[in-house]
Design a protein that fits this description.
single chain; 145 residues; mainly alpha; Methane Monooxygenase Hydroxylase, Chain G, domain 1; 0% strand; rod-shaped
């Protein structure tokens, strides 16, 4: 584009389309046809994936968004806390409760069985991988006792 085209904007025309004059009488030079309905806006692109902080605390600082992945992650975190892998968030102490951990692992197993074929690839990998890891950790701790 040449420099002179950027400096002088194209002129625009203002056209008064009001059907009535300032005194309230109908104007002859304007057609009485209704305006065409506005075009529908183009479909919005899919929103970007929320960051970990946005997903954890909701978009506007409200409650977290509930999704299958978030639900499974909460169960995994609870199981890891009960297996002594991470400190308990309330007591801030590491404790091992194999019976409660086994119950959570079994719940994840039921979820896996009942949702088989209905999960997307990422959800299936998350659930199956977590189940394997939790079961191996459980067996390791149970055999050590």
């Amino acid at each position: 584009m040449a420099d002179d085209e950027r400096e002088s904007p194209k002129p625009f025309k203002v056209q008064d389309r009001r059907r009535f004059s300032a005194s309230g009488e109908a104007r002859d030079d304007v057609a009485a046809t209704p305006e065409a309905p506005p075009e529908a806006p183009p479909p919005a692109a899919e929103p970007a994936a929320p960051s970990a902080d946005a997903a954890a605390f909701g978009a506007a600082g409200g409650p977290p968004q509930l999704s299958f992945t978030a639900f499974v992650m909460s169960l995994i975190t609870q199981a890891l806390a009960l297996l002594g892998e991470i400190p308990d968030p309330v007591e801030r102490a590491v404790r091992v409760d194999l019976d409660a951990a086994r119950q959570l692992i079994d719940i994840l197993g039921v979820l896996s069985d009942k949702t088989r074929g209905n999960l997307d690839a990422g959800e299936a990998v998350l659930l199956d991988g977590a189940l394997y890891d939790l079961r191996m950790k459980y067996v390791e701790l149970a055999n050590a006792r």
